[in-house]
Amino acid sequence: MQFLKRFRDIFLALLPIVVIVFFVHFFFYEIDTKIIIAFLISVVLICIGETLFLSGVDSTIMPMGDLMVNSVNKASMFAVFTMFTIIFGVCATIAEPDVSIFSEQVIASGINVPKLVLMIFIGIGVGLFITIGIQRIIRNINIKYIYVVLFAIIFLLSTQIKQEYIAIAFDAGGATTGIVTAPFLLAISSGVTSKFSKDNDNNEVFGMLGLASLGPIIAVLLFFIAFGDKAGEIYESSKSVSILFSALKQSSLAIIPLTIVFYLYDLLFIKLPARRKLELLVGLVMSFGGLFLFLFGIEFGIEKMGTVIGEFLATVSTPLMIVICIIFGFVITFSEPSVIVLAKQVQTATKRNIPSVVVMFAIAISMALAILISALKIVYSINFFYIILIGYLIALVLMFVVPEMFTSLAFDSGGVASGPMTSAFILPIMISLAAQTSSPLAGFGLIGIVSMSPIIVLQLLGLVYKFELKRKDVVDHRRSVSISYTMDLYSNMEALEEEYKRKYKENR
């Protein structure tokens, strides 16, 4: 029953995209029938694959994180736990569908680096920054100052390379914390907070995803600084490998290392019973099958359709392009399951003062604006560095005036806002649009902008929440004063009545 419900939710989330594609086909731009058929088959494969994959993740990745944290009963084990957490974080990142799809797009656009090397760099960035997140919780360090220092480093490194490479680095950060990495990091964050946080503050749980998203940005920036223009030479990828074999290879590279690392840790420290090991293994097999179908579906028809839509956008007028980008950006939000989870988190954290529906629509608007800005960046050759600099300066200023919970929550949202469909469908649209106007590399930056937008929007919601609390305090204060005044009057009336009765008796 849960499987069917999840399948239905994913299908309904993808349905608006299918409708828009057909709308474009029938009214604006005739798309080849073979591409449409491949696209529809891919949608079905993605629905089945993502349902299987998420079911496997629920029964494996989250429990694995919990089991690893709960195994740390002694302080002497903490260093070993941290080391395995870093390795596990690297493997989880490589297993992330978004990272695989994004890396494929980078290579296809002309970056001369093996896909696995790029994915390992991104994974190392996540793994190392998990350590920073753990230490922040243990030492109770204010996350605002960590963000200031890290963004100062990021912007300093960004001045040393081309803007196309800066865009790729920020996209790498946005692609990391998805449906595999996010549950694992939340489990680690929650467990470390409950075990080691000095204040045992639930707000400490938030922030791990935001920090993990910055690690790949710095790692990829350092990669391009180290290799320079050699990393930008045209990469002639082999097309002899079938899509089927490619998806099988990517799924194996994602799931098998993850399995080996966890079972090694279990052998040394956790020592689970055989039945529990088998249950986790079944979940991992389910994840493997789901990831295979998902990646195959993406490569079989989704990316091709994105390329066609990008070619179409290059032929239309700017006003029509703006409208289409806004529609795609708004609709794509509701196809990302992580955004729905985030909206519910905000509703719970604010005690329903900010409903999840408001959060969803706010993020949808920010996604629409992000995709529009990305398209305008391509058409008008706007420097990506200035966009990201202005955006994050606004975000950094806001974090000093909003409640601290919203800062951590907002930066976490930046890590989860861009999901598989953003990487697999919207990014190819932008790359294709860029290929028609300048260079495919100019299409990158989309995921970086999409990741930045919710950070600003959620902090603005944090300001609204702050003012709403103040307004309620004022209303409550006035009500209290009014009640107190009424009670005083009532008390005085009783006293006057008693005095009247006393005098009446004396006069008689």
Polypeptide structure, described:
The protein has 508 residues and is mainly α. It has one domain. It has helices at residues 2-27, 33-70, 78-94, 97-108, 115-139, 143-158, 163-176, 181-196, 208-227, 243-270, 274-313, 318-333, 337-349, 356-379, 384-398, 404-416, 420-437, 446-507. Helix 1 runs antiparallel to helix 2, helix 3 (78-94) packs antiparallel against helix 8 (181-196) and helix 14 (356-379) packs antiparallel against helix 18 (446-507).
Low-confidence stretches: 232-240
Strand content: under 5%
Query: What number is the mean pLDDT?
Result: 81
Number of helices: 18
What structural category characterises the helix and strand content? Answer: mainly alpha
Shape: globular
Major beta-sheet overview: none
Oligomer: single chain
**What would you report as the Rg, rounded to the nearest angstrom?**
26 Å
Q: Level of helix content?
A: over 70%
Could you give the count of β-strands?
0
Helices and strands, in order, run as: HHHHHHHHHHHHHHHHHH
Query: How many domains, in number, for the residues?
Result: 1
Distance between the termini: 85 Å
